[in-house]
Design brief:
five-stranded mixed β-barrel
Length: 273
């Protein structure tokens, strides 16, 4: 079955389950599902019930598509995302972004937890992503291009919307939140990086590193959707500060820092046109 048919079947099913017409799409990362608590939730659909949708297999990713109101706008939020390391293809990982576009979203907001490479960063710090480096071995746009979805060679000179970045920085300053601005490198995982890998990724220009976000943003930009992404630094890949880390520790740091991220995201959604 071709992707256009899948998109149309999935959209029809979702629209049969909710009357919400979202203009904002949100992807919530590891330990960051709490933004849903700020939403006026109208409908929830479990991924397992949605045709052609993958199933989230990662701890802390609950696996629901949530429709509601946030910041005065109708939104659809993915409470749990999909990763390349789960064994999904890049097309499967990014399929929900295609669906959100088909549902009518005009902007995409993404969150993640990442490892800090910039020596100025601290654990629990907020980083607004201004650019990324794609280190995944596969690309979500490989294969025959579907012109109805986007151009064969999409421009990536502005992967993250400059106006939303500037507004997010204003919001952080207004609320006394320290928010860095940096470059995110996307790798497959699921292993965390070795000290030599951290050094290499820092040398090529990244401020943080993680296992998501890049594929979703590429597909969103392919379809002309402006993107905003924010990361919580949950551990450090800085020489002398590298420590053994497990997923429980990552989630704990993300949960603690989440209120700051939630405030920025909620206020930003309320202020964008």
């Amino acid at each position: 079955m071709d992707i256009l048919t899948k998109c149309k079947e999935t959209r029809e099913y979702i629209q049969s389950q909710t009357s919400v017409q979202p203009t904002i799409g949100i992807i919530l990362g590891t330990g960051l599902g709490g933004l849903v608590k700020e939403m006026n939730v109208i409908d929830e659909i479990e991924y397992k019930d949605i045709p052609h949708f993958p199933i989230s297999t990662v701890q802390s990713h609950s696996g629901k598509l949530i429709f509601g109101e946030l910041g005065g706008k109708y939104v659809v939020a993915m409470q749990g995302r999909f990763h390349f390391y789960e064994g999904y293809t890049m097309q499967e990982v990014t399929f929900p972004v295609r669906i959100m576009k088909y549902l009518g979203i005009e902007r995409l907001f993404v969150s993640n937890a990442s490892g800090g490479l910039n020596p100025d960063y601290e654990i629990g710090e907020i980083m607004i992503i201004c650019d990324h480096i794609n280190l995944f071995p596969a690309h979500p746009l490989i294969g025959k291009n579907i012109d109805e979805l986007g151009p064969r060679f999409p421009d990536m000179s502005e992967p993250y919307d400059r106006n939303m970045i500037a507004l997010a920085n204003e919001i952080a300053e207004e609320n006394g939140i320290r928010a860095a601005q940096g470059v995110y490198a996307g790798l497959t995982g699921p292993t965390l990086e070795t000290p030599a890998e951290y050094k290499y990724i820092r040398i090529i220009g990244a401020d943080s590193v993680g296992m998501s976000t890049v594929p979703e943003v590429i597909v969103a930009r392919h379809m002309g959707i402006p993107c905003f992404a924010i990361s919580i630094i949950t551990d450090l890949g800085v020489p002398g500060k590298i420590k053994e880390v497990n997923v429980e520790q990552v989630i704990a740091v993300a949960n603690k820092a989440e209120p700051k991220m939630t405030l920025i995201m909620k206020e930003l959604i309320s202020r964008v046109d």
